[in-house]
Structure formats: structure tokens, C-alpha cells
Amino acid sequence: MTALPGQRPTTAISPAAGRPADEDLRTLFGQSIAVFAALAGPTHVVETANPAFFAAIGEERARTGVPLAELMPELDGQGFIALLDEVYRTGESYTGHDARVVLGTGSQARETFFDFTYEARRDAAGTVTGIRVIGVETTQVKHAQRLMAEHRAMVEQIARQAPLTEVLEGMARCIENLAPQEVLVSVLLADADGRHLRHGAAPSLPDFYNEAIDGIATGEGVGSCGTAAHRREPVVVTDIATDPFWADFRDLAARAGLAACWSTPILARDGSLLGTFAMYHRTPRVPRDTDLAFARVFTGTAALAIERHHIEEAKAAADARARAAHDELARVVRAERELRAEAEQRAAAAAELTARLRAAAAAQAASPRPGQCQLGGSDGCAATAEIKVADSWGDSAWGCPVHVEEVIINVRSVFIASEELGGLAAYLNR
What we know:
With 430 residues, this protein is α+β, with helices and mostly antiparallel strands. Helices cover 43% and strands 21% of the residues. This is GAF domain-containing protein.
């Protein structure tokens, strides 16, 4: 017998008494949350089913007297009709655990999971006359398990300081994959002043739409997200085509194929605005409890990721300022050392030039006007002595324009002391 993944054959149940037993089962499962259906004949005609069965497959298909393959044609490609054929042929019951069933087709298709049993129905002679289907939908449990696994992975990403864009993109895709119906997720990030919203992540929305809403203002009536950010509370727009909040963005939403948008503000622990978390839909829709649960769980996760990102940004900025301050201090210290060294060099040069001036003054007693520069130091200077300089102590000397300028720059209180204008002119025209 062919088995679907996650399913196993079970031992056949002893023949029941026939019709009275079926009636007892219908009574037992009438108001149960477990799904129950009684199928008759080799074509598996739906003879009876409880409300939970029709709620699971869709109330619009709540009818009996038709083969199951006609009522739910999507089952044939998933192996369930073939499995019913096998149970009807062999009479052996079959139990499946966490079996994945796609109910509906096209845009209405949704993923579900069931624990179920196919059990042969027999007449008084023991001949198989049909099949009882008994099951419990485990979709919410399965999705909750996947949700917690994905959520744990995202928290680990945040803990190892993964880039914010990577975390938000992963979060958006996770929700889009887990949601029972098609949903398109968008995360917008608040500017520092909280007055505008910037693109954060929206992997399934078209680029032209993301670019158009990047930078929208926060305020009453500015779409779902701008209003949610302004109010600091969730805003549910079930029909964009008629909602006044979307008056300025209605054409844009229509181009993107968007018909509903539910937005939740992302708030920091101190209540400040971090951004918004939005769930878009292709058709007008009212949120269900599972939708609201998704929003609560992932809005909190987004807040954690964004706050962590802000902390890391602030730390990086503080580190950059500290490095800049350290570099500036090092530059100032280097400059101070260079200035000190230059001052020491100037002091040494001044002392040496002062000594030259005084030595020249003493030599003038014998030769009032020397022919050569007296300020050349130990190396001497063969240039003509053109300019006389003196200090406040009365010491004077004659020198060439080059050495006279060196003395004037480095020795305090030195001035040109030529008895005639020629010396000053020589200095000015040096």
C-alpha cells in the first residue's frame, strides 16, 4: 500500500454492526472540533459529514451526495484519493500524522496539516461499503512550531549582530512563508526625529512602490503606516479602494495590486517610534486572530533588532569620536613638541648671535667701521659690512644684510643703528 509522508498503515478494525454504528458516530462527531465524514462506495461519495469537516474544506463546499474527488478535486494530485482507493480495496485502516494538505486552488489555496484515520465501513457480512474519515487539524500547532523555530533563528541573528537589513528581510520572508494566505510584508524605519518613515525591508513589494513610499511623513491620514506611526497604535485598513487614509496613495496601491493593509507601530521600550510593520493583501481582508498574533510577535522582534542596531550605531559613533579625539590629541602633542623644539633652536640661535654681537662690539674699539661682516660667527663672513645694528645695552656691530636680518629676527631689542641712511637703505633693499 502506498503511504504518504508522515503516515503509516494501521491494523484493520473489526467489522462494525453497520448502519447503527454510523449513526452513533455522526452523533458523537456532530459538534466536535474533530473532522468526520462518512464516504460510500468505490467513488467515495460524501454521505455525511460534521460541521468541522465542512469548515475545514470551506463552507461553500458544504454538500453531500457527490464523490469526494468532485467536491475536493485538489486532493487527487496529492495522493489522498489513491489512498482512499487502497483502503477501500484492502479494508485495512490507515493513519497519518501531520499530513500536509493543500486545500483550495489558485489564490484561495492554503496549506493545512492533519492527523487522520481512514477506516473501512463494512456491512453485516463484512464487505467494505465505504470509508470513515476521522481527523484533527494540526495546522495551528504546526505553524506555531515553525513560527517559534523561525523566531528563535531571528533572535540568534540579532544576538550575533547580523546586519539589520538581513534580519528584517528574513523576518518579512518568514511571515510571508508562514501565513496561511498570501501576505506581503513591509517594514519602515523611523527617522531620528520620528517625522518620516524610510524603507527597511519589503522583499515582495514592487520596487516602484517601495521607492514611492520611502520617506513618507508620519501623520493622521497618511496611509496605514503614516497613521499608525502618528497614533502609536495599530491601524487596520480592510479596503484600500474606499478608505480615506489612502486617498493620496490609492492609485499607487492599485498599480502594485494591493487591496488591504494592516500596520502596527514598532515602539522602543521607552515608547519612542522605531518604525512600522505592515501586512498587505491582494484582496480586501479583515485580520484574523492568527494575523494579529503574527503582528504582535514580529513587531516585538523587529523592535529588538532595530534597538540593537541603534545601540551598535551609537557605539560605533562613540568609538569614532574617541578615535578622532585621540588622533587630534596626538596631533596637538606632536605640534607642541615641534614648537618647543623650534623655540629651543631659536633660543640657542639668539644666544649665539648675542655673543657675536658683543664680540663685534668689543672689536670696534680698535676699528670703528670694519670692512667685512662681523656677524658671521666662527665660520666668518667675507661679505662687506653695510649695516650697523645695536642692542639696548649699547653693544653694536656691523654686518652684511643676511646676517643683520638673522640678528634682528633672533635677538631681542636689536635695531639698525647706522649713523647714515645708507645702512637702512641697504637693509630695506637686501
